[in-house]
């Protein structure tokens, strides 16, 4: 992989995330939080997962809606940083804070048991971003590759042989996860079918639910080489909870995947999918997209954040050095290699 391409992918993801935060929330929100976000890059470099980084950021006084936006940034940053090791992505992206992965063992030992559709879909987004960074994301093959990856993850959990507690209905955690996987598998297969048939976004929205991750994947996979068009369609169809069909399961940022989402959660799920898919489109194409409502400060901050994340990944300096305003130049690009 060429160093220049990887640098663009890190930068483009961070710029798009901040630009989308600005468009969806406010310039004040993005400006207020970007230094808090940058300060968490050392934690990500030191192996902190989604739950740990989110806990670190919870002290900044964000509203629940703002915290969901922040969590989406964390998911994208972790996937970028840990893209070279797909086997540990479930651990790196784990949102189940009760698990302790400080003493990580060879897989499949201590794999986290995802307990909601939201967490499982977070893994799908992380996988897609990681594949893009490795130049292994194929719009034609991603759904089948993703289903294979999730299936192996569920199989590894089953092979652990851990004693799993049951819920009030007597369902074990692994059985619950298997149910969620089967639901998601059906949705992902439908995404592929809609893309193969060349169905319109209106048809896809009616069958997938406007604010679902699967609809976001449809928007991406059907026009993967046109990131601006992907963002336009996301903004057009994910801007309102009115589009959500009864019984739709949640996306990133949602609560219980089985129960019906409240209007607030439904809207939040769509916003987070919009940010995640827009960042994924930018990572796949390796281009920096500027949102109409973003200013040069947001652009510069995104580029600096991407460079900082890449610098930690490539070992330019020690993660303990966390001066926020210092962004070192990365030298000897022709010698840089993936750390896998």
SSE topology sketch:
Blueprint (H helix, E strand, L loop, with lengths): L2 H22 L2 H12 L2 H5 L4 H8 L6 H18 L7 H4 L24 H17 L8 H19 L12 H25 L3 H8 L4 H10 L4 H11 L25 H23 L10 H19 L26
Give a quick set of tags describing it.
340 residues; mainly alpha; globular
Quick gist of this model?
The protein is mainly alpha-helical and 340 residues long. It is 59% helix and 0% strand. It has 14 helices and no strands.
Task: Describe the overall structure.
The protein is mostly helical and 340 residues long. Helix content is 59%, strand content 0%. It contains 14 helices and no strands. The longest helix is centred in the middle third of the chain and has 25 residues, at 173-197. The model is unreliable at 96-109, 240-266 and 324-340 (pLDDT under 50).
* End-to-end gap: 12 Å
Which structural category do the helix and sheet elements fall into?
Answer: mainly alpha
Which regions have little confidence, pLDDT < 50, spanning 5+ residues?
96-109, 240-266, 324-340
Rg from C-alpha positions?
19 Å
Per DSSP, the total helix count is 14
**Beta-strand percent range:** under 5%
Helical fraction? 55-70%
| Mean pLDDT over the residues | 77
Shape: globular
Number of strands: 0
Multimerization state? single chain
Order of helical and strand elements: HHHHHHHHHHHHHH
Largest sheet: none
């Amino acid at each position: 992989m060429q160093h220049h391409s990887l640098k663009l992918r890190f930068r483009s993801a961070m710029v798009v995330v901040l630009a989308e935060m600005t468009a969806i929330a406010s310039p004040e929100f993005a400006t207020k939080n970007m230094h808090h976000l940058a300060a968490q890059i050392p934690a990500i470099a030191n192996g902190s997962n989604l739950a740990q980084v989110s806990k670190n950021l919870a002290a900044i006084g964000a509203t629940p809606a703002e915290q969901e936006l922040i969590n989406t940034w964390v998911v994208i940053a972790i996937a970028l940083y840990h893209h070279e090791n797909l086997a540990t992505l479930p651990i790196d992206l784990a949102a189940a804070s009760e698990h302790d992965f400080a003493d990580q063992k060879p897989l499949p030992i201590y794999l986290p048991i995802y307990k909601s559709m939201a967490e499982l879909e977070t893994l799908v987004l992380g996988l897609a971003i990681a594949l893009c960074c490795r130049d292994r994301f194929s719009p034609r093959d991603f759904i089948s590759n993703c289903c294979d990856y999730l299936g192996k993850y569920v199989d590894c959990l089953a092979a652990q042989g851990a004693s799993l507690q049951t819920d009030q209905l007597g369902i074990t955690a692994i059985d619950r996860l298997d149910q969620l996987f089967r639901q998601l598998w059906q949705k992902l297969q439908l995404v592929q079918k809609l893309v193969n048939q060349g169905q319109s976004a209106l048809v896809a929205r009616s069958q997938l639910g406007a604010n679902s991750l699967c609809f976001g994947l449809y928007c991406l996979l059907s026009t993967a080489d046109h990131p601006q068009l992907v963002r336009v369609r996301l903004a057009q169809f994910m801007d309102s909870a009115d589009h959500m069909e009864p019984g739709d399961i949640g996306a990133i940022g949602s609560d219980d995947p089985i129960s019906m989402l409240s209007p607030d959660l439904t809207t939040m799920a769509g916003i987070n999918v919009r940010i995640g898919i827009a960042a994924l489109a930018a990572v796949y194409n390796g281009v920096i997209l500027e949102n109409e409502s973003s200013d040069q400060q947001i652009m510069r901050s995104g580029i600096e954040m991407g460079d900082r994340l890449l610098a930690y990944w490539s070992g330019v300096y020690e993660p303990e050095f966390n001066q926020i305003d210092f962004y070192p130049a990365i030298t000897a690009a022709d010698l840089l290699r993936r750390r896998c």
